[in-house]
Every structure is written in C-alpha cells, then in structure tokens.
Amino acid sequence: MTELFKNYIGGKWLESASGSTFDRRNPATGEVIGVFTDSDARDVDAAVVAASKAFASWRLYPAPKRGEILFKAARILEERKEAYAREMTEEMGKVLDETRGDIQEAIDMTYYMAGEGRRMFGQTTPSEMRNKFQMSVRKPHGVVGLITPWNFPMAIPSWKMMPAIVAGNTVVLKPATFTPKLSIRLVEVLEEAGLPGGVVNIVLGSGSKVGDPLLNHPGVPVISFTGSTETGRAVAMAAARHNKRLTLEMGGKNAVIVMDDADLDLAVEGILWGAFGTTGQRCTATSRVVVHKAVQAELAERLAARAGKLKIGNGLDQDVQVGPLVSAGQLETVHGYVEVGRVDGADLIAGGKIANQGALVNGHFHEPTIFDNVTPDMRIAREEIFGPVVSLLPVDSLDTAIEVVNGVEYGLSAAIFTQDVNNAFRAMRDIFTGILYINAGTTGAEIHLPFGGTKGTGNGHREAGTAAIDFYTEWQSIYVDYSGKLQRAQIDPVG
User: Fold this and answer.
1) How many CB atoms lie within 10 A of CB 488?
2) Distance (Å, rounded) from C-alpha 12 to C-alpha 458?
3) pLDDT confidence bin for 493, thresholds 50/70/90
4) Cα–Cα distance between 296 and 258 in angstroms, integer?
5) Residue 401 phi/psi, 5° resolution?
C-alpha cells in the first residue's frame, strides 16, 4: 500500500481538514512514490496558531541549546544520507550524485547554523555621555512562512529553516507539490532530534490553497520565497500590502564568459556541468556561453560532441548523467523554447529532441541541447528556460562580453574562464551578479557565503552564511544610563 504523508502541525502528524490527497509520481518511470494530504487555508491557520503558541517559549530557549538540537539533526541526516538521496532521485529525478549533494548541503547548513547558536553576536559601543552603556542585540521576528521550490527538495528548505529556528523564530513550511517528501523527511529528523512541537510545522498543498493563505496570514510577519520571478513579483506585492518582511530568490539567466586565452578543456567541463547538471533545473544553471570569436568554433565543436554522449535515463542508474525533467509541463515548456530558438534563427548543434524511446518512454526526458550563433536579443538568450538548453553568443572583446552578461533582467550567477589576471579582476569589478566564479562554472555555491542575486533575481536579501541570520532577526539598540540624571545625548554638553 502506498504511504500517506501528512501535515505536521503542533508536533502531530495530521491529515488535512478536507481529507483530500494528491499523488506524486517518479518523473523517470511514472510510478507512484507517495500519496500526500492536500491542504487548504484551514490547515494553514492551524499551523500558524501552533507556531505562534510555540514562539512564546521557543524565543526564550537559549540560543546555544537551540544549536545543540540542530547538531543532533545534522548527525541524523549524515546517517541517512544515502537513503534520502535515493528517495530524492525517485521524487525529483536528478541523478544520485546530485541528490547526495543536495542532502549534503542540508547537512552542512544544519551544522553551520547549529554553530550560530553560540555566535548570535551584537555590538557594544562607547557612549557620547558619561556613565552610559549601549549595545545592540538580535531578536527573532515570530512566525516565519517558508515557500520552497522543487529543484532542491531538502537543501533549500534547510537554508531557510535552520537560520530561522536557531535565531528563535518558529516556522510554517509550504514545500513544492512536486517534491514534498524530502521536506517531510527533514521535519521528521528535527522532530527526532528533540525540536519542541510547534517550532516547525509543514503544510502540504498547492500555491493557491496553501501558499496564498500563508502569504496573506496576519499572524505571519515574515515570508521567505524561492521560485519563479513571475510568482515572486506577485508575492512581493502581497507582502507589501501587509508590510511583511520578505526575502525573494527568483530566476536567473546565468552566463559563462570564455575568453580567447581560456583553458578550453576546463571551460568545456564547467559548461557541461553547469548547463546539464540537474538537467538544467537550477537557478544557477549555465544558460548562456558568451564566447570569444577566436575560440567559438572549437568550443562549439567540443561541447556538441560531449553533449551528444551524455547518458540520459533514470537517475538511480549510477551511469546516468542526465535525469528527467520534473514534470510533463516542464518538459513541454523546455521543448517549446527549443522550437523558439529554431524559429529565431539560432544554429542547433546538439540535441533538440524529446527523448522518449525504449526505457525513457514513461518519463519526462529531453536531450541536452546547444544552440550556436545566438544573438543577445533572441528569447533563448534572455528568458529563463530551466532545462537542458544552452546558447553560445559570440563576442570580440571582454568589454562586449561583460555588456552581454549584464544585459538581461537577472543577476544571479556568472563565470569567466581566462588565464589573464587582469581580465579576472575586471570581471569581478564590472559584472553585476550576486555570485561570480573565476575559472569554474556558474554552479557550486557553498553554504558559508551569502547566496542570492541582483535585479530581477532577488530583492536585496541573501540566504546562507551569516547574511541569513540578518534576515531572520531584528536589531534592537539598548541604552543603559546609570548616571542618575537625565542625559540628552547630543543636546547636553559632556561635563
């Protein structure tokens, strides 16, 4: 019998108020991997009430002790890494090496934020007045609503949950309907590690029936959202109406610059991994290659030859390099962009087809696809595709390359391959993205540095590192006057 996965509200696993359910199928095989309770605003309200009640005591729980619970959770995740990786491949489709990396990110983030329980630092400063002390301290906000995407089913929930929890907030998590199982596994681990009931709550269901009520709930002052730019803009408008604190992590159109002095062997490896790892379903995926005309022909030939040899199939097969897209709808969207590229006049040099022969017939597979001689005004060079499609855009100088990289609405990740240190430093100065790699691809961010983007990718906040603690806490400045008289700071002379 297929397992039924439930909401977790106030420390209890509960079916939805409606009793409705939805299935989730393996995108490689079409097999049902679980039945999930399908929730609505009533379940969201119950979760917010539980989180509000838990906040009263959790905010007073010593931060180092909060961290100790996270340390326990990280150790449990380590023990179950392989089992969870296999479940994630069945749920989301990406190959085992990548799902192991997804779980490892959650492990790393949990350990990192556990340590922040003993580093919730503020500042002390000297006062302008005699017999006066002053300092700043961090305080939690309260109930935090987390809305997460399907492409990193455990890593991204951990990016949001762990800093929120260790800072003293309580959480209501709404995972993506495509990939709820691994978010449930993460909550199960926190429960097992001893997290008090109500500190973390998870409500399963769609954006309209769960995400919108969570976003608009008056008891949720903080929202963290990762998803498409279109949805993120709607989230921003709704949050503004209620004056909610908001972090947005949205789309990307990430570019690799390949200069005429680049190590092409290294560049090919970086581009293939960035473009076709996770089947292109990463916000940091390489979608554009801005290549110097002097090496364009050789790079295009090498990439096309290598892309054509990548093995497509079920990610549980250790030899497979490219798994399925997450859904039939995503496959349709990606292939639609391939047709757009053809019509707009780009040169298709690799792939271009839906892969549905033999063992692939029941899955959502697409060939790794490369277009050459793409111009910056083409849709495939400007719009996020979120699939295994990459475009080569020829340029004749570094100045033009940087202009092309910056010339889209997004600003998440970029990279440059060059052996010239001057080129590297000019790229660091002039490329306007939240993340920049030198002689590496556009993916591979580590959890102890800030993660996020500029322009249409985000709204200025960052995830990961200590920057995450800044989002999930509020500063309070405290002044202690022990002079025994009223001192009016700048008004009174120091006597």
Assistant:
1) 7
2) 35
3) confident
4) 9
5) -60, -45
pLDDT at 495 over 90: no
Do 273 and 137 reside in the same domain of the chain? no
Share of the chain above pLDDT 90, in %: 98
DSSP symbols for 86-110: HHHHHHH---HHHHHHHHHHHHHHH
Is residue 333 domain-shared with residue 464, that is, in the same domain?
no
> Residue 298 domain-assigned?
yes
Query: Do 236 and 332 sit in the same domain of this protein?
Result: no
Is residue 122 one of the residues assigned to a domain?
A: yes
Q: Looking at the predicted structure, is the pLDDT value of residue 489 above 90?
A: no
Verdict on whether the full-model pTM lies above 0.85? yes
Which tokens is 341 given? Answer: 């590229």
Which range marks the domain in which residue 138 is found?
4-250+458-477
Beta bridge partners, 481, equal 132
The yes-or-no verdict on residue 328 having pLDDT over 70 is yes
CA-nearest of 142, 183, 174, 151 to 16 is 174
What DSSP designation does 490 have? Answer: G
- Termini Cα distance of the chain: 81
Compute the residue count for the chain.
495
**Spatial separation of the C-alpha atoms in residues 210 and 161, rounded to whole Å:** 18
Quick one: 115 and 137 in the same domain?
Answer: yes
CATH of the domain at 234: 3.40.605.10
Contact 368, 388 (CB under 8 A): yes
Are 232 and 323 in the same domain?
Answer: no
Q: Is residue 320 part of a domain?
A: yes
**For the chain, how many structural domains are there in total?**
2
Active site members: 249, 283
For residue 391, is pLDDT > 90? yes
Can you give the pLDDT at residue 393? Answer: 98
Q: What is the DSSP string of 220-233?
A: --EEEEES-HHHHH
Q: What count of Cα atoms within 13 Å lies in the side-chain half-sphere of residue 53?
A: 13
Rounded CA separation 256/412 (Å):
12
